[in-house]
Amino acid sequence: MRNPIVISFLFVLLIGASISIGAASLWQGDLEAGWLIAVSRFPRTAAALLAGAGLALAGVVTQLAVQNRLVEPSLTGTPEAAMIGLLAITLIAPGSALIWKMTVAAIAALIGTIGFLALARHVPRKDPILLPIVGIVYGGILGALALGGAWITDLMQYLGAWRLGEFSGVVQGRYELLWAIAGLAGLLYLFADRITLLSLGEIQARSLGLNYAQTRWVGLGIVSCITALVVVTVGALPFIGLVAPNIVSRLKGDDLRHNLPLVASLGAGAVLAADVIGRVIRYPYEIPAGTVFAVIGAAIFLWLLHRPTRYAGG
User: Fold this and answer.
1) Which of 63, 105, 211, 305 is 20 to 30 A distant from 41 in Cα terms?
2) What is the pLDDT of residues 235-274, one digit of tens each?
């Protein structure tokens, strides 16, 4: 029971710190403190937790779908594709509701992911590092297309917000779409056993009776929706989907149904911790959570490359 107690205690500390830390003090009066918590601090904390949990789950699904532990949505061009979709809907229907922008971004993210899978078919699997390198190049190309389109159409400020990955603008009424991640996580839990079989490869998965194509489409559809929700609401957050699943896999193995709560919890805690650190480093100014975790995540990524795998199937 020690580990769950320690983890719960750390979560309570993180949530308390997130609600307490900010440029405005909570100790100016009960009414004002309550208003500040309800309108700003709680939405920001919930957004960080939901975004982190969602991206961690998206990462584990992506890794199983391509049979590579060093891949995650930010290394497959999925966020960049979502940004291209957001640019398109902003140009065509700038006054459209947020739900429609998210829908278009999700469709664009799915198309971008399909493009990566098409490239992945031609990448030799003997060296696991080759696939993430291809994903970085592919994402760079899509990012350049988004940047060029934003420059031509004078939408650089929008693109900057989508690429930043920060929570300072999250307030009541501007983050609620992220609660859909909880529903997507429940759907992922229902398909967990089937998605786990994707890691065996198409031939072996089909021999076990799995509808490989259908399961893969469901998994990638969930990944695209989660990525679009996060990009639309708070911007891109790299490495979350890489770090959380790998750490849990090394500690607990590859049972997706058993690991889903752990992966989601680790991703949620990591993003919230990065947001809190970003608020503390240059208080009262802020460093975006995406920037903070990009530095930490890059270091962990290098550690994962050089550390031997604990489980044969990991």
Assistant:
1) 105
2) 888 888 888 888 888 887 777 788 888 899 999 999 999 9
Q: Residue 245's closest CA among 266, 221, 216, 273?
A: 266
Token readout for 10 is 């750390």
Sign for the pseudo-dihedral over CA of 44, 166, 62, 142: positive
Q: Give Cβ neighbours of residue 132 (< 8 Å, ≥ 6 apart).
A: 68, 70, 71, 75
Burial 160-172 (b: 16+ CB within 10 A, else e): eebbbbbbbebee
Report d(CA 155, CA 138) in Å as an integer: 22
CA 290/CA 166 separation, integer angstroms: 6
The pair of structure tokens assigned to 251 is 């500690």
Q: Where are the domains of the chain?
A: 53-163+171-266+292-306
Question: Which residues lie closer than 8 Å to 125 by C-beta, 6 or more apart?
Answer: 67, 68, 131
Read off the tokens for 211: 């509808």
Q: Model confidence over 73-123: pLDDT tens digits?
A: 888 889 999 999 999 999 898 888 888 888 899 999 999 999 998 888 888
- The separation between CA 256 and the C-alpha centre of its own chain, rounded to angstroms, equals 17
Asked if 288 and 165 touch (Cβ cutoff 8 Å), the reply is yes
- Number of helices (H), then strands (E), belonging to the chain: the values are 14, 0
Residue with tokens 């003997």: 126
Top-confidence residue, 50 or 170: 50
Measured in residues, the chain has a length of 314
Q: State the burial class of residue 203 (Cβ atoms within 10 Å of its Cβ: 0-12, 13-18, 19+).
A: exposed
Q: Under CATH, what is the fold of the domain 53-163+171-266+292-306?
A: ABC transporter involved in vitamin B12 uptake, BtuC (1.10.3470)
How far apart are alpha carbons 222 and 135 in whole angstroms?
A: 19
